[in-house]
Amino acid sequence: RAKNEGRCTYRFFEAAMGVQVTARRMIEHELRQALARQGLFLVYQPQTRVDSGETVGFEALVRWRNEAGEDVPPSLFIPIAEESGTILPIGEWVLRTACREAAGWSQPLGIAVNVSPVQIHNAGFARVVHEILLETGLTPQRLELEITETALIRDLNRALATLRQLKALGVRIAMDDFGTGYSSLSNLRAFPFDKIKIDGSFIKAVDSNDQAATIVRAVLGLGKGLGLPVLAEGVETPGELRFLNAEMCTEAQGYLLGRPARIEQFRHLTEGEARRGVHEPDRALRAR
Ligand code: C2E
Ligand code: MG
Ligand code: MG
Ligand code: MG
């Protein structure tokens, strides 16, 4: 079943992007080599409390610079890696690298890692997470796994069993890209989520677009009702952040608060005493 879905994803992808089978095979081959030869790296994007401007964690995002020196976007290579199964070793590498990195910080900030549906449906995923936690020494509560709804629908029972195993380890689970895809509100109740991430497409112009504002308010109400913090993705303007602050959104992430970058760019946050005061949000909120 998963295999078929992978093929569908690929067909859709191929049609949408015009990527030929041979090109896809080449990308897949180069990707495997990149994984073996340390051609992949991670960038980190701050996750910030809206009320205080305090950075509470980072999301790890995988990057690939190919042999020709071009940056291949994840939106292009992740679907290929998922279809071919290469996402399993890549996902494990991402998880291990992010956990090892975070375990070395002097500040106990959160670390969010994206998990592919293919990983969730692979038997033994929770065991891999457990091993990585033991190996890196990261406090499980600092790890947050970001999962999209598409990860759940393939096999609800199996996904639920995996999520329960992960929760038993002490790690947190965030629903990523909420509002896109096959949003089923019952998923929010049936699955042990610890956070809702509203997709960036709803945040765009939320301060000037009534429909976007209505949708975001509804999701914030949902989070409040379910007792789940809500993080707004893709926050790009002070106006959007002010709206989120007025509506009591918990956390925000986006270019306004920090672009994804190598972790060295954030040493003042991972090592510093103060986790706030360096960000736009403070200024943006004061400017009201
Ligand atoms: P995502 O998990 O929803 O990540 C958020 C994406 O939005 C990232 O794109 C990030 O760079 C981008 N972004 C952040 N702030 C802003 C903003 O203010 N405006 C706009 N327009 N975009 C913003 P990126 O890094 O290209 O990743 C795209 C997607 O690829 C991710 O969406 C995630 O689904 C997937 N991905 C990235 N890294 C990994 C990974 O390590 N494993 C897996 N399985 N998927 C990954
Ligand atoms: Mg994510
Ligand atoms: Mg997202
Ligand atoms: Mg996304």
Number of DSSP helices? 14
Helix content: 40-55%
Average pLDDT over all residues? 89
Contiguous runs where pLDDT drops below 50 for at least 5 residues: 1-8
Shape: globular
Strand fraction? 15-25%
The structural class is alpha/beta
Protein name: Diguanylate cyclase (GGDEF)-like protein/PAS domain S-box-containing protein
Keywords: Membrane, Transmembrane, Transmembrane helix
Domain EAL: 24-274
What's this entry about, in short?
The protein is α/β, with parallel strands linked by helices. The chain has 14 helices and 9 strands.
What report would you give on this structure?
It is a single chain. This protein is α/β, with parallel strands linked by helices. Helix content is 49%, strand content 17%. It is built from 14 helices and nine strands. It has helices at residues 2-17, 21-36, 74-84, 87-103, 117-120, 125-136, 150-153, 156-169, 185-190, 200-203, 210-226, 238-246, 267-270, 280-286, and strands at residues 40-49, 55-65, 71-72, 110-114, 143-147, 172-178, 195-198, 230-232, 251-252. Helix 6 packs parallel to helix 8 (156-169). It is globular and about 50 Å long. It starts with a helix and ends with a helix. The model is unreliable at 1-8 (pLDDT under 50). Bound molecules: ligand C2E and magnesium ion (3 copies). One magnesium ion binds at residues 176-177, 197, 199, 233.
